UniProtKB/TrEMBL annotation:
Record keyword Oxidoreductase present: yes
One GO molecular-function entry: aldehyde dehydrogenase (NAD+) activity
GO biological process: aldehyde metabolic process
Keyword Oxidoreductase: yes
Xref: InterPro entries: Ald_DH/histidinol_DH, Ald_DH_N, Aldehyde_DH_NAD(P)
Gene3D superfamilies per UniProt: Aldehyde Dehydrogenase, Chain A, domain 1 (3.40.605.10)
Protein name per UniProt: Aldehyde dehydrogenase family 3 member F1-like
GO cellular component: cytoplasm
Keywords: Oxidoreductase
Length: 125
């Protein structure tokens, strides 16, 4: 896996993707999680070799402490994704709450994230 020549262009591409709104779609998030799961499964041996070289970890220990928990976390995220993305009803203790009740307005809270996280990983291979 090659290191990007121009990190700025990679960051711009990530920002453009985020700003396009595609990252708000459940299907996009699910595909990203599945791709991460595939990467972990495909590169499990490479990860184990790197951990053995760098930290002296046995392959079983690598899976138990590193790869296995990540796979479990990704599967957990895949199961909870739809629920986590759903909007939540909120209670407002202001005058709008009284108006909302009077006019039967449904108040819902939807989480929005406004940041980009980049994880840079180098796999020895």
């Amino acid at each position: 896996m090659d290191c990007p020549e121009n990190l700025e262009s990679e960051l711009k591409e990530l920002r453009d993707t985020f700003n396009s709104g595609i990252t708000k779609q459940e299907s996009w998030r699910r595909s990203q999680l599945k791709a991460l799961l595939s990467l972990l499964e495909e590169k499990e041996d490479d990860i184990a070799k790197a951990l053995e070289q760098d930290l002296g970890k046995h392959p079983v220990e690598s899976f138990r402490d590193e790869v296995g928990p990540l796979i479990k976390s990704v599967n957990y995220a895949l199961k909870g994704l739809k629920r986590w993305m759903s909007s939540k009803k909120v209670i407002s203790l202001s005058i709008d709450f009284n108006l909302a009740c009077l006019f039967k307005v449904d108040r819902r809270f939807h989480k929005e994230y406004n940041a980009i996280s980049t994880v840079v990983v180098t796999l020895v291979g």
